[in-house]
Specification:
With 145 residues, the chain is mainly alpha-helical. The chain is built from four helices and no strands.
């Protein structure tokens, strides 16, 4: 795949994950009373979207590209493998974050679900756009009998 189209896949997948992350953050993490003031709620969503976009793009362009290169070498091209890799990376990041932060148990659980689901959305979107299962070498030429 060309470098330009791979960059486009990373950007679109990062934005999809960032949209989900910002939506979950602004709806569940920022308290329900915030939505009584729609302009403020939209501002919180916008700021969360910008921060999530940058963080997810950095993770996708580093960890995600390394994973993609490894998966290509090992011929792991199925949707389930990419979704599992995204979930695993998201859970590893979430568990690291919760070990560094002191939150109540419910907060830890929400962060794990939040980051894990965002990473799964990113990897799934990247697979749907990139479709590595279609990267098969052409058949070798055969001679006529």
């Amino acid at each position: 795949m060309e470098r330009k189209s791979l960059l486009a896949v990373i950007l679109v997948a990062s934005l999809a994950g960032a949209f989900w992350a910002a939506l979950v953050f602004s709806v569940f993490m920022a308290a329900g009373a915030l939505w009584q003031f729609p302009p403020l709620a939209l501002q919180v969503f916008g700021v969360a979207f910008i921060y999530a976009s940058v963080l997810i793009f950095i993770m996708t362009s580093s960890v995600g590209l390394a994973w993609h290169a490894l998966a290509q070498q090992l011929r792991w091209r199925s949707f389930a493998v990419y979704a599992a890799a995204g979930l695993s990376a998201g859970l590893a990041i979430a568990l690291t974050a919760t070990s560094l932060l002191t939150l109540p148990a419910l907060g830890d659980g929400l962060i794990i679900v939040w980051i894990g689901s965002s990473a799964t959305i990113v990897s799934s979107t990247a697979w749907l756009l990139r479709r590595p299962d279609r990267d098969t070498p052409p058949n070798p030429p055969t001679s006529a009998p």
